[in-house]
Amino acid sequence: MYGRALSLFKTNIALYTIVIVVVVMFELMMQAVGIVTLVFAGLTMLYTHRMIQLDEVYGWADPLSTTGKDGSKVPIIGYSLRFLALFIILTLMITAGFITLDRFGVLDPNAETVDLAFAIWGVLIAVPAFCGLMAVVGTVLPACAERGDTSLISAAGRGFKTFWKTLVNLVIGPVALAITGMIVLGYTGWHVDETSGWILRAAYQIFVSILTIVPATLAATALSIAYLDAESR
């Protein structure tokens, strides 16, 4: 999985570079930290699916082309809606997890270490929720990318065929990298604020964007592998 993702970066460096530059520029100008990154993470996943499944290449001439090599339109709107739907479901699952913890008195909002507790529990809830959801119905995304069968029933059928392989790929890929990135960003973030120079803030934002786009690429790679594997059976 890592090897395939690395080859995608090398072949389609134009797309990934443009995505990171655009994200950094928007977030520095608009201070919309997180929103722009989420949008372009979804776009990165869409184009990554098409690179793997349709052998498309996005060079400097048109790094974010809206037309595939066969002349068909890239399903940006359809993919975005499904990506957003899965994101909302994941958010609801995480929220339900915190409500359950609160219901059973596991979290004490008055404790001195409440922020640390929320962070730890957030990871413990979010990781299984993300991996489980993506492993079961996540192939709806690569299916949409190539205009295949996007029904949840079909996605679940593919998910059950490749569940454990996909689960492992998600854990050792995007999840492991995202957690490592959170730790690194948590440390470096203490040294960057509004009083820092624009060069330092831009460098930090580039780092943040990379640690979002790369896990998104790995997640898309894992889902495309699962999709192709399930469809070949």
TrEMBL record:
It comes from the Bacteria. The chain crosses the membrane at residues 13-43, 79-99, 119-145, 166-190, 202-228. Keywords: Membrane, Transmembrane, Transmembrane helix. This is Glycerophosphoryl diester phosphodiesterase membrane domain-containing protein.
